[in-house]
Design brief:
The complex is a heterodimer of chains A (592) and B (233). With 592 residues, chain A is α+β, with helices and mostly antiparallel strands. Chain A is built from 18 helices and 11 strands. With 233 residues, chain B is of the alpha/beta class. In chain B, helix 5 (120-131) links the parallel strand 5 (109-113) and strand 6. The chains are: A alpha+beta (592), B alpha/beta (233).
Chain lengths: 592, 233
């Protein structure tokens, strides 16, 4: 069967796309965003609830928080498995929290003082977690922990001892000396943390592709500079070019630029691609049974629900689908395009996508490189499945052909040769009666013919027992059991409905081999035979109480049984512990 | 047997033309009248309905299904005309078919291997014995049935000689014939027979075919019971 990929993709597009995440986070994210937005609004209202209005710049805290929020929600919704989005939302909360220090409510003012440095720590966290939102390496993780330590713990002397902040609830004593020491420790350790961060980022810059470096370097430099400048400007008077209010305004705007810069990188080149590759990486790492299909993962990541995979079939030098059917890649000029996927220099498949949805083939190519190994494995699985199916069909065909042949030969012998021999015997007897031949010779001839008839009868029985041909499996098994020299507990399906001829032949073969083995080799005293048909499957179980130790590998009889059963897509198992008897269990599909 | 004058009228069902003609010839030579020949089971049933024969000779494996169509046809004929004598021929003998035939009425019944036709005289006398109301089973069937007999069976208690006698009885032989075959006196055979009856708990009867009938029904029912008795393990 040959189809074109556009046919396939139509049906694929009709399928409900599976999301990468287990459930869509959209609603939850939007709800969270609404909450944070409201929080900012409440804060603004609070800022101006006091008897004296503060300078308008205090509004910038919640506003910068909203900027973080907008950037974070955008990233979160676009890349659900990327943690940059959630992290930026945390940044938004940190900004709104820090802004509380400007409210006239004492308790909120205290909270604001406690978290006042948190926004800077979050920026460091964002930088180190970029682009996936996950921290890579022990150094990064330790640095982020240190950052939060600097931002939250080393912040303490300021609200505990600084006389300027005496109005807060946590204020202990007017110890400006301790407050000063705390201030310098916080700024010193903070500077070290920032330097380490800068070094980590510099090392990362060295390792990325030049294209990415052009995007990442300004982002890193800008962010580091912004974080450095905020504390440094209060320490070094030389940097304080403007009056404190103007300076604070500029600082806040600069810090607000960081999430905007991240968002810009998201919508420009590097981050988008890295994010997609990252999502595919997360897919690759997921538990194979829990993750969605490769095609769905790619379709979801690249945003093309009509995306299709084609596997390269080396022997036929053509692309095939998962079912092994030959497919043609879309012709140029159609709205669909294909990108080849290779492992090393070996072609393994192609990703066929909609050019109107994905304009940049490079994006598909990169995704293809990430999943190449998975695609190759899927190709091998499809190939293996197809070849196993072919093998089974051909084996079934061989068994069926042999069966048909046996029936035909048995039938022919029965119809022609046996009849002829009987008539010959009649003639030989006639010779004896009419005395034309010496009596002894005639008797010898007659006896010879009778022997031939008996031998032929045995032969035909061996090919196809008459009772099997005439009365089916259950009767044949009963007769077989009757002839066995050991007592056999027989349990047959009560319906005794007719079975397909191949199942009857195979079933008889299994029963007769298993019983013969039990009688000949197992030194059994008692046998049990059960044949049951249930849910479209015929179950044959032969048990004995003999010496056990039989296995499908050793006994050619068992091997032959297994082959016949498997040819009908059935399964044969042998349980035969030494000294524990033998149980042969065959399950063969037999229609309803 | 129906009191009737004139030759015994026969319908033969056999799909092999050579065999069919051969049988017809043999029986005709021996004084039977061939009423009709049929080459499949359906035709056989029709012919029997049409000609009301005294005897139906049927091959077991016949068209249309090439299975046990001939046997089924014979049983069907016996159901609609219980007085008809049946001779069922086959290339293989199966005890189960003997049992089924017996269940349909253990008289005027024969079940033989086809090759028994070769000994024309014995065959024709068997056919006559069947028509006279007797039961004739092929020695192969009898020995297969005896082989099926399980433990706890009274037949097991018989001496080998008694079993031999029983087998020949089951084949429809008279005491005289048994004596001749086993090189015994008729008196000795009669003694064995009464021992067999005794061992099997059967009352002796004077009638030749009735005793066969009794013995055979005993064997068939016992063997049937034996196979089901083997069920629990």
């Amino acid at each position: 069967m040959t189809g074109t990929l556009s046919d396939v993709s139509r049906s694929a597009a009709g399928r409900r796309p599976t999301r990468l995440g287990a459930r869509s986070p959209t609603l939850a994210v939007l709800f969270l965003a609404a909450c944070v937005l409201a929080l900012g609004a409440v804060e603004i209202a609070l800022l101006f609830s006091g008897p004296v209005d503060p300078p308008w710049q205090v509004v910038l805290f919640p506003v910068v928080g909203w900027v973080y929020l907008a950037a974070g929600v955008t990233a979160w919704l676009r890349r659900p498995s990327n943690r940059m989005g959630p992290l930026m939302v945390v940044g938004a909360l940190a900004w709104i929290g820090a802004g509380l220090a400007n409210t006239p409510v004492q308790s909120l003012h205290t909270v604001g003082l406690v978290v006042a440095s948190l926004p800077l720590a979050v920026v460091i966290h964002l930088l180190l977690a970029f682009p996936s939102g996950r921290l890579r390496g022990t150094l990064s993780r330790a640095t982020v922990v240190a950052t939060y330590f600097v931002g939250l713990v080393l912040q303490a002397p300021r609200y505990l001892y600084d006389p300027e902040e005496a109005g807060n609830l946590l204020f202990v004593a007017d110890r400006s000396d301790l407050a000063d020491v705390g201030h310098w420790v916080q700024h010193g350790v903070g500077a070290i943390v920032i330097v380490i961060t800068a070094l980590i980022l510099a090392r990362r810059l060295r390792d990325v592709a030049p294209q990415q470096r052009y995007v990442l370097a300004p982002l890193y430099v800008y962010s580091i500079a912004a974080v450095l400048w905020v504390p440094a400007s209060s320490d070094l008077e030389a940097l304080a070019l403007w009056d404190p209010l103007t300076r604070a305004t500029i600082q806040l705007l600069v810090l607000a630029g960081i999430p905007v810069a991240f968002a810009a990188v998201i919508s420009l080149g590097g981050f988008a691609r890295t994010g997609e590759i990252d999502e595919l990486g997360a897919w690759l790492g997921a538990d194979e049974h829990a993750r969605p299909e490769l095609r769905d993962a790619l379709a979801d990541t690249l945003g093309d629900p009509s995306l299709e995979l084609a596997f390269w079939d080396g022997p036929s030098a053509a692309y095939v689908d998962a079912a092994g059917n030959t497919v043609a890649l879309p012709p140029s000029g159609s709205s669909r395009a294909a990108v080849e996927v290779s492992v090393g220099r070996r072609r393994v498949g192609a990703i066929v996508y909609d050019e109107t949805l994905i304009a940049d083939p490079e994006l598909v190519r990169r995704a293809g490189r990430v999943v190449a190994a998975a695609l190759d494995r899927e190709r091998l699985t499809a190939e293996l499945r197809a070849s196993r199916e072919r093998l089974r069909i051909s084996r079934a065909r061989v068994v069926a052909a042999a069966d048909t042949e046996r029936r035909r030969i048995a039938h022919d012998l029965h119809d022609t040769l046996q009849t002829r021999l009987v008539l010959l015997a009649v003639e030989a007897h006639g010779l004896r009666s009419d005395g034309s031949v010496p009596d002894g010779a005639a008797a010898e001839l007659e006896a010879g013919i009778e022997t031939a008839i008996n031998e032929l009868r045995e032969l035909v029985h061996g090919l196809l027992p008459a009772v099997l041909a005439e009365r089916g499996l259950y009767a044949a098994v009963e007769d077989l059991v009757d002839r066995m020299p050991l007592p056999i507990a027989l349990e047959l399906d009560s319906q005794r409905a007719p079975l397909p001829p191949p199942v009857e032949s195979t079933g008889y073969f299994v029963v007769s081999e298993a019983l013969t083995n039990a009688v000949k080799h197992a030194h059994a005293h008692e046998l049990g035979l059960r044949i049951q048909r249930m849910n479209g499957e015929l179950t044959i179980e032969v048990k004995d109480d003999g010496i056990g130790g039989a296995s499908a590998g050793t006994g050619s009889g068992l091997r032959g049984m297994a082959e016949r059963v498997e040819a009908l897509d059935g399964h044969l198992s042998v349980r035969s512990p030494p000294g524990g008897g033998t149980c042969v269990l065959a399950e063969v599909p037999c229609g309803s | 047997m129906r009191p009737r004058r004139g030759p015994v009228r026969v319908v033969i069902g056999e799909d092999q033309a050579l065999m069919r003609e051969g049988l017809a010839l043999l029986l005709e030579r021996d004084g039977f009248e061939i009423a009709a020949l049929a080459n499949d089971a359906d035709a056989l049933v029709r012919a029997a309905g049409l000609h009301h024969p005294d005897l139906v000779v049927a091959d077991i494996r016949m068209p249309p299904n090439e299975a046990d169509d001939g046997l089924r046809a014979a049983l069907e004929i016996r159901r609609s005309a219980p007085g008809v004598a049946l001779l069922v021929l086959s290339q293989h003998v199966l005890p189960r078919y003997a049992t089924e035939l017996m269940d349909a009425g253990a008289e005027r019944l024969g079940y033989l291997l086809k090759q028994r036709v070769a000994d024309v005289e014995t065959f024709c006398s068997d056919v006559r014995r069947i028509c006279a109301g007797g039961v004739v089973l092929d020695p192969e069937v009898v020995s297969a049935m005896l082989a099926r007999v399980r433990r706890d069976d009274p037949v097991e208690r018989l001496t080998p000689r008694q079993r031999e006698v029983l087998a020949l009885m089951a084949e429809g032989r008279s005491n005289q014939a048994i004596a001749k075959q086993l090189f015994l006196t008729e008196k000795a055979v009669a003694k064995h027979v009464s021992h067999v009856y005794h061992e099997l708990g059967l009352l002796p009867c004077p009638d030749d075919h009735r005793r066969v009938l009794a013995v055979v029904s005993f064997l068939t029912s016992e063997s049937a019971a034996a196979s089901s008795a083997a069920t629990p393990m």
